[in-house]
Design goal:
mainly alpha; 2 strands; 288 residues; two-stranded parallel sheet; di-copper center containing domain from catechol oxidase; 7 helices; binds copper (I) ion; globular
């Protein structure tokens, strides 16, 4: 049965409660921290050698699509009625809006140590102890808008600029790629200061705390953010009918990206599925 991912601002209080309960149960079972670990393992930058499957690479979108499906399946083993909601950060832009309510993700971190003090994921509630990628403490951290050096959430205009690009990705298929939908959405920008962070990356910067690094999965908003990013891939496909994932073929031996990126029909670790097979999610889930 095809299930639906909803805008988090439209969830009923019962839906919010069921999502939170399922998240806490996946955490209690120890499965959640495996997701955190896996993301840390795949946090490879293009400054390093080796294959990049998850970030700074064309397979950024299919990799996170598979990753979300794994979490969603874990949630649905707890409660088959649950799916991952998406956070439309072009509309819900304040600390008072969805998804930051007390009955969902809780709010900003406090000043002194960025510790989240409200909602079910606050450390004092006893059900969300950080175990992987621990830096400051065992508590979840956020720092909305980075007050010391303010940054705004991405605008609808900047998201639309990414969506308007008719090409999925272009050489050199890394963080320096200037054109192409993938990097304009992933958001490795150019210039200095805040201009370095666009769209997807800028949201990680705006939330701050755990969302800043490889251990960003520790913040449950990771999934709501990436569901919205995943939705943009579907929107882009509708806007540019028939435009495929790129590259179609693996870069050759003389290319700097040889064996460092996943081409359309190559297997993507750790799942062994191809980006091509992940281009259509309509038989699994849809977006409302
Ligand atoms: Cu990621
Ligand atoms: Cu991300």
């Amino acid at each position: 049965m095809v299930y639906t991912r909803k805008n988090v601002s439209t969830l009923t209080s019962a839906e919010r409660r069921r999502f939170v309960t399922a998240m806490l149960e996946v955490k209690r079972r120890g499965e959640y921290d495996e997701f955190v670990r896996r993301h840390i393992d795949y946090y490879v930058s293009d400054g390093e050698g080796g294959l990049r499957a998850a970030h700074m690479a064309p397979s950024f979108l299919p990799w996170h699509r598979c990753f979300l499906l794994d979490l969603e399946n874990a949630l649905r083993r707890v409660d088959p009625g649950v799916s991952v909601p998406y956070w439309d950060w072009t509309r819900d832009r304040t600390p008072a809006s969805a998804p930051w309510t007390k009955d969902l993700l809780g709010g900003d971190g406090r000043r002194s140590d960025r510790q989240v003090m409200t909602g079910p994921f606050a450390y004092a509630q006893g059900q969300w102890t950080i175990k992987e990628g621990v830096t400051d403490g065992a508590f979840l951290m956020r720092e909305f808008g980075r007050p010391r050096k303010p940054i705004q959430l991405p605008t609808l205009a900047s998201l639309n600029a990414a969506l308007s690009d008719p090409v999925y990705d272009t050489a050199p298929f890394d963080s320096t790629t200037r054109r192409g939908f993938r990097n304009r959405l992933e958001g490795w920008g150019h210039g200095v200061g805040n201009a370095t962070w666009e769209n997807h990356n800028r949201v990680h910067r705006w939330v701050g705390g755990h969302m800043l690094g490889g251990a960003s999965v520790n913040d449950p908003v990771f999934w709501l953010h990436h569901a919205f990013v995943d939705l943009q891939w579907s929107r882009w496909q509708m806007l540019h009918r028939g435009a495929p994932y790129l590259p179609e073929r693996p870069p050759g031996p003389g290319d700097s990206q040889h064996r460092r990126i996943v081409a359309r029909r190559e297997k993507m670790p750790p799942w062994g599925v191809t980006p091509e097979s992940m281009e259509d999610h309509s038989l699994i889930y849809r977006y409302a």
